[in-house]
Amino acid sequence: CEQRFPNNKYVLKPTPAAYGGLRAFAGEFQHMAAIGWTRTYYNAYPTIDYLCGGSLITWKFVLTAAHCSADGNNIPPDTVRLGDTNLASFYDDMYAQQIPIARFIKHPQYRWSRKYYDIAVVELGQYVMTNKAICVACLWREQDAPGDLMD
């Protein structure tokens, strides 16, 4: 895996954190993806509602929850945003990438009413370009998990 926490993180204007949470720094969670729905309200400019998250696991696939395959109106998401720590601000967009969704692959045993097998893979419409703010998640590649705590 590439370097996870570079020393050259840049600090942006403070923003409110999630209740009880801490603000993320740019480049701190390089694998995080925002899954969104493009909307046009009353002939206005299109906006994107980001309702789900995921993790970039290869340069073309994002791991997410199967229940993210549609919103409350049964509309599928159409876009993924990477490299953007604060979706409400333009100050951290220099490395952000907006990529269309090619297809949403849910676990075959997933059922909306049960929430079991709530896992899916999003195939992106193009490959992600690597940069300082975007990197694939480090996944365990060994047969067995370690028996002791990991640092």
Briefly say what this structure is:
With about 150 residues, the chain is an all-beta fold. It has no helices and 6 strands. The protein has strands at about 30-40, 45-55, 60-65, 80, 95-105, 120-125.
Question: What is the name of the CATH superfamily of the domain at 32-124?
Answer: Trypsin-like serine proteases
Tally of DSSP β-strands = 6
CATH class of the domain at 32-124: Mainly Beta
Structural class: mainly beta
User: Could you say what the CATH architecture of the domain at 32-124 is?
Assistant: Beta Barrel
Protein name: Peptidase S1 domain-containing protein
GO biological process, one term: proteolysis
Organism: Anopheles quadriannulatus
GO molecular function: serine-type endopeptidase activity
